[in-house]
Design a protein that fits this description.
The chain is an all-beta fold. The protein contains 1 helix and 59 strands.
Length: 647
């Protein structure tokens, strides 16, 4: 059987090839009412549709009579000169943009249906052309009586003269570029055309109806394949891929469901032996084809169905007991002889009963022989499940008094816990939180129904010594260089870890801590807030931590000028007081009569006096200032003085 991949269902690259999608033409010259189509020149091909006006309807219309070959519309165009004797030439063209770029160096089949309009069946020409381009032949500046002269991609030498039937024009071609546009019309010079029904009348020209335009890519790759085999087949199946229109250097075969590469060959062959229905994909160059091998299952025939499959845990023995009756009806006839096939893990008791103790999943078989059907057998699967391996972690640990810890069990779907001698119920929770003031244990059994694992135990010791981390700081605020005294007042710790937040960290034992009188003197050179942290630990892992913050302020800065010159020269224009960051200022300026001229209030974001009062410059002279300054430690300073205003 031959298959050409996707050819029968390949996409038509021509949009609206049957001219059925339309906005309904009402007059001649309205090709653009067919969705996707237009005239590339100023001449006017026509669109006919079942919803159109009388001149452009299907059936009887202006040029003649014709029904669509497909759908509810078709197009028409003038194909030949008006008057071949004087060389006057008028031609119409149809153009559309393809649904997608054509693949370069690929093979395509182009086809269309053509019929001649009865009223204009004169000077019928051959060489209807089809031109594929990247950018189209759009040229509205082309004179009305000047055709598009060029070598078209396809030219049909067949002369269509039938006014009743649609005539198929079809050809195969190879693309030379990634074309995007299709143009239809007569592209050849008039002297190269062959005419039929020649007439010298002014209106003696040919008018073609056109419908069902198709452009389909040809898959050059085909596959001959076997289609069906029975499940009992033994010989491999040979799949053979061949080509048309080209020669491939290599064929790559894949399993189409997984895209797994199976084989590469020069001759296009693949030997397969699937256990189930499988579709194979072959790729050569950029072409693809498929072959499906259908594996037909053998008819299911169970002569006996007396035994149920069963599941046991490793090390167990199971009784295989055949069902003799169901609802009072005997399930197998006395004429059958049942016989167990020998197996080292099977002990036969009777025809229908045996003990099995397999070490892994095992099928046991019993056969029946009625003198006609021998060898028919029924299988009993005894599945063996491994007993779960219980693991608890950690196996041993030491916790602090009052501390909660967690143990984790693995190996089962569910678990049975024993905490300090108290058994719980079976649960899917594989974690337990434990808190105890005295040494205890936790035991657990992993369960993977129906099988149970051995018990595993975790032992938990309790360190009853309490750890309390604490320290004091001689001063919590200061200016650089700030060196506070830090005293360790912790109890219960055996190791201490200091972080002074100034880039210095210290880890020391209790003995080292005592040797330095439990005191540290960290240095701070930059104004900032620092958090000192102490972690006290015991060797058992018991730990406590604490922290305190200290603040280092910038140095005290207070600069008060004694004069300023607000004369608009850009220098010393205002009375400005300079403070350290974090300091605040309140104050006022008075003239000699005690009148307040200016007020500082940091909440109002006023920083300097520019020598004005009520937006007018004051006279040069001596003025008095009263200031209240608060530093970073909240200490208040008062300043009083005079300022010379010079103009």
């Amino acid at each position: 059987m031959l298959f050409i991949s996707s050819f029968g269902q390949a996409q038509n690259m021509v949009p609206n090839g049957d001219f059925s999608t339309s906005t309904c033409p009402i007059a001649l010259g309205q090709l653009n009412t067919a969705t996707g189509w237009y005239s590339p020149t100023s001449n006017s091909p026509d669109h006919y549709h079942s919803c159109g006006g009388s001149y452009v309807n299907i059936g009887t219309n202006y040029p003649g009579y014709q029904l669509p070959y497909k759908g509810s519309g078709y197009a028409g165009f003038v194909a030949t000169p008006w008057n071949p004797t004087n060389g006057s030439v008028y031609r119409e063209y149809l153009e559309c943009k393809l649904k997608a770029q054509l693949e370069k160096n690929a093979f395509y089949v182009y086809s269309m249906r053509v019929s001649v309009a009865e009223q204009y069946a004169h000077n019928i020409t051959n060489k209807i052309g089809v031109d594929f381009t990247k950018n189209g032949n759009l040229n509205f500046s082309l004179p009305k009586f000047q055709p598009i002269y060029k070598e078209a991609t396809l030219e049909f030498n067949q002369t269509v003269t039938d006014t009743t039937n649609w005539i198929l024009l079809k050809d195969t071609f190879k693309t030379s570029d990634a074309f995007e546009f299709l143009t239809i019309g007569i592209f050849a010079n008039s002297e190269d055309l062959t005419f039929s029904n020649i007439s010298n009348e002014h209106t003696a020209y040919t008018y073609f109806y056109i419908d069902d335009i198709q452009l389909v890519k040809i898959n050059r790759l085909i596959v001959e394949k076997d289609t069906q085999v029975c499940a009992s087949y033994s010989d491999s199946i040979l799949l053979q891929a061949t080509s048309i229109y080209t020669t491939y250097s290599e064929y790559s075969w894949f399993d189409s469901s997984t895209n797994l590469l199976l084989h590469k060959s020069k001759d296009g062959t693949l030997k397969v032996k699937p256990k189930e229905t499988t579709t194979y994909m072959v790729i050569a160059d950029k072409d693809t084809a498929y072959a499906t091998v259908t594996v037909l299952p053998l008819p299911e025939f169970k002569f006996l169905d007396l035994f149920n499959d069963t599941l046991i845990c490793k090390g167990e023995e199971v009784l295989l007991q055949g069902k003799i009756e169901a609802n009072g009806v005997r399930l197998w006839s006395n004429k059958y002889t049942l016989r167990w096939l020998p197996h080292p893990n099977l002990t036969v008791i009777s025809d229908s009963t045996a003990f099995a103790k397999p070490v892994s999943d095992t099928y046991f078989y019993v056969t029946a022989d009625d003198g006609k059907c021998s060898g028919n057998k029924d299988s009993i699967l005894v599945a063996v499940q491994d007993n779960p391996i219980t693991t608890i972690s950690p196996n041993t640990q030491t916790i602090c008094k009052g501390q909660e810890t967690e143990v984790t069990a693995t190996g089962g779907q569910t678990y049975l816990w024993n905490i300090g001698g108290n058994f719980g119920t079976e649960t899917s929770n594989n974690k337990k939180s434990i808190s105890s003031d005295t040494t205890t244990f936790v035991a657990v059994q992993a369960i993977d129904a129906p099988c149970r694992g051995e018990w595993d135990t975790s032992f938990i010791a309790v360190d009853t010594t309490e750890v309390i981390a604490s320290f004091s700081v001689s001063a919590e605020e200061g200016f650089p260089t700030f060196v506070p005294t830090v005293l360790n007042t912790s109890i219960g710790g055996e190791n201490y870890h200091w972080d002074f937040a100034n880039g210095v960290t210290i880890t020391e034992t209790l003995a080292e801590d005592v040797a330095r009188n439990r005191t540290h003197y960290p240095q701070y050179f930059i104004a900032n807030t620092y958090q000192i942290t102490l972690r006290a630990e015991r060797n058992s892992g018991c730990v406590d931590s604490t922290s305190k913050s200290i603040i280092v302020y910038k140095k005290f800065i207070l600069e008060i000028p004694n004069a300023f010159t607000p004369n608009n020269d850009g220098l010393n224009e205002a009375f400005n007081i300079v403070l350290s960051d974090g300091m605040t200022l309140e104050g006022s300026i008075y003239n000699r009569w005690g009148e307040k001229l200016y007020e500082w209030n940091t909440a109002k974001e006023q920083s300097s006096w520019n020598g004005t009062y009520k937006n007018k410059p004051v006279q040069a002279g001596v003025y008095v200032y009263l200031l209240k300054i608060r530093d970073q430690n909240n200490t208040v300073y008062f300043r009083k003085g005079t300022i010379n205003l010079i103009r």
